[in-house]
Design a protein that fits this description.
The complex is a heterodimer of chains A (192) and B (258). Chain A has a domain of 119 residues. In chain A, 73% of the residues lie in helices and 0% in strands. Chain A is built from nine helices and no strands. The radius of gyration of chain A is 17 Å and the shape is globular. With 258 residues, chain B is α+β, with helices and mostly antiparallel strands. Chain B folds into two domains: 62 residues, Orthogonal Bundle (3-methyladenine DNA Glycosylase II, Chain A, domain 3); 163 residues, Alpha-Beta Plaits (2-Layer Sandwich). Helices cover 31% and strands 10% of the residues of chain B. In chain B, the strands form four sheets. Chain B has a two-stranded antiparallel sheet. A two-stranded antiparallel ribbon of chain B has the order 2-3. The longest helix of chain B has 24 residues. The chains are: A mainly alpha (192), B alpha+beta (258). Chains A and B meet through helix 3 and helix 4 of A and helix 1 of B.
Amino acid sequence: MASYISLILGCILVNNFVLTQILGICPFLGVSKSTKTALGMGGAVIFVMTIAGFFTSLIYHSMLKPYGVAYLQTIVFILAIAGIVQILEILLQRFSEPLYKALGIYLPLITTNCAVLGAALICSQKDYGLLKSTIYCAASATGFALALLIFSSIRERLDLARPPMVLKGLPLTLITAGLLAMAFMGFSGLGK
Amino acid sequence: MVTLVIIVVVGLLTGIAIALVSRWFGVEPNPVEEEVRNLLSGANCGGCGFPGCAGYAKALVAGAAKPGACSSQCAGAAEKMAKLLGVAVVHKEPKVAVVFCSGDDMKATRQALYNGINDCRDAMIVAAGAKTCAYGCLGLGACARVCPFGAIEINEHRLAVVHKEICVGCGKCVGACPKKLIKLVPKSAEIHVHCMNPVRGPEKFKACKAACIGCGKCVKTAPEHVKLVPGAALAEVDYGNPPPEALAEVCPTHALRK
């Protein structure tokens, strides 16, 4: 139990996907203009990554590992993740219209989110079991959502500031992301 | 062999799963929405202000938009849509894109020979393009390539020309031009001042024989139709009251033309 708690905390704070492992940078910069879209994207990532983590781990342990073709993981995982996102979209549209509307365009966008594939690959690399993989993916996604939320709040406030012309827009965004990543380095002493 | 089997099996399973799920749980598309969408042109030009034809159809069915905003659908299609939805058509004024430059290779000089990537946006990075005039059409066709209707032609003297009869005024080219020379204007306007360079007349005339030198002849002849741009040696057509075609004859450099 204690090992799972340290795993979850480690994923969210110490080895934060965006700020420490530099995965999923495109949505981090792309949809962090407002807290609302950040929340939508964060929710969608948590949702998809947890489910994708479970299924990719299932495929890895039931097919790839026993037949000794672990080198196929990248292509098979991409296939599986794309399929899972498609199925999720159809099911959500049918059974949970509000959630489908809330996630909106972010759901199909996640198909190409490297954080989802990254989490699946890390799980198989570290040879996590089914439960541990799912927890790892869910916690990593929560870390992603947290980083996205913090970053979008910062950017919303930055919009009110009047930075020098040279820094306006993307330069300031990138500097802010760097500072945020440095702040998260403070957590590195928290666990292994 | 195992590789092949595993990829095929995973692919097939995913495919079958998606097919079955969409068969059992898929949401039937709204039939009215489908019909409305078929009445749109399907060009996905974005001229209506919605993300593609599907987005506009959705907004129409939801009541968030009125028929008549699509400038590329056939005549009468907007009325059919209005009948289908039980609302009135709100026609918007038809617009066309105009390239505000007359400086083709016969009239405008070049400051350099550009041999780079064949696109205006790339040429713009290198000393703002090869034309001497900073407001000159580069003629490399960024606008023509982005046009979903093929309404823009780069003519033989390397100048972008909009074919008014094909253009629907979606505005995609406006954002594509790195020199910002393309504007949407009312279709009813016959002639335009094809120049956007605000510098002094003699200065731009040196670079381009087709520049508007700001002589003010057109303004004197028809002050109600044309006015001078404040602070610039440049005339501008008043699109609220467009001038007749005959006024083009007074322009000495033929910047004011069709």
